[in-house]
Structures are given as C-alpha cells and as structure tokens.
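so my prof wants the structure for this chain in the tokens format not the other one, which i didnt know existed until like an hour ago. anyway here's the sequence
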Amino acid sequence: MSGLRLAVLASGTGTNLQAILDSVHGREGVELVAVAGDEPEAPALDRARAAGVEVGVFEEGAHADRNARDAAMAQWLAERGVELVVLAGYMRLLSEAFLSRFPNRVINVHPALLPAFRGLDAIQQALDYGVKVFGVTVHFVDQSVDSGPVILQRAIELPDAAEAEAVHDLLRPLEHELLPEAIRLIARGAVSFDEANPRRVVISD
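here's what i got, hopefully its the right format
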C-alpha cells in the first residue's frame, strides 16, 4: 500500500489522537484526513482543528436515530476517501451499517487485555477482579463490544494497583505507542488474517 487515508473518531480529550498526529500523520504514507466526534465541545476536536485536520460533528440529537447518525458520518468519511477508521476514545457503539462501509478497516484501542474486561470501565473491572497484570489491546471492531480480532497487545505488572485513574495513567503511554504502531503496520500492508482461523491476525515483516 503506497499510502493510507486515515480518520479518527473521538469523544473526549484526544490524547490518542494527539499521539497519532505526533507520530504517524504525514509519515510513511499515512495522512490523517478527518476527525469526527459526537461531542461538539470535545477537546479532541480542538486538537484536530489546531493541526489543520477537517472536523465533523455528529451529535445523536441532530439525527433521527443512531443508524441515521452513523450513516451520515460514514458518508462524510467516504467522501473524504477514508481507508481506515480509528476509534480513539469514541464512546458510542457503531452500527452494523457503518462497519459494512469499512469492512475490516475500523480499529479500536482498549485499556485491558482482551478478551478480559470488555466494555466500559475496563480498568475498574480489572481492579475489582483483583488482577496483577494490566494492559492495552488494539483490535479490529466488529458488531459486538470489544470482541474483534486482536492486532497488538502489551501488558505491565501492577501487583499493588488500587485506583483506576492511576492505572490508566500508566497505561496511556502503551496506548500512545500501540495505536500508532498498528496504523503503521496496516499502512504498509503487514496485517492480514490467518485463513485457518480468521480471528487470528498475522503480522508480517
């Protein structure tokens, strides 16, 4: 693949978006061409504007329902030639119709070692369970919650962890490394699926 036109969906502060802007945008053929979100005041959108990236806001209340909103957002992204959609703190579930517009081209970063602790409050779930090892997963997005094939994972041992925010502070650097790395791998065509087990993502040199 000679280049990759990238979009990011974000709902919050946008630290993972900033990591993408700082480490892969405009490098190795990767171009961040659009950032979309559902919260008009989200700092992530301000980060995109400051970087000169086009921004779209798709509030749920501005559309008839979730499917209508997702259809409008998918069309907006398609019009900009987006080839890979990255969820970076996007707090809405995407519809089947949206995912069908970008088959195997939507990825997410999750603050847990999937398949454990899916969904919201993953770190608190892990703390409540009493785990000693925490981590980050970058995975393809499918129609269920945090259930798509795993691209990259990294773990750290935190045997004395007690507070979710403190754990997340330690996991953020992993997120900021793994998400851009997954984008780089996809951009150079190094990511594929095992024919014998389509859940297994294969990373080639």
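also thought this was worth mentioning. The longest helix spans residues 164-187.
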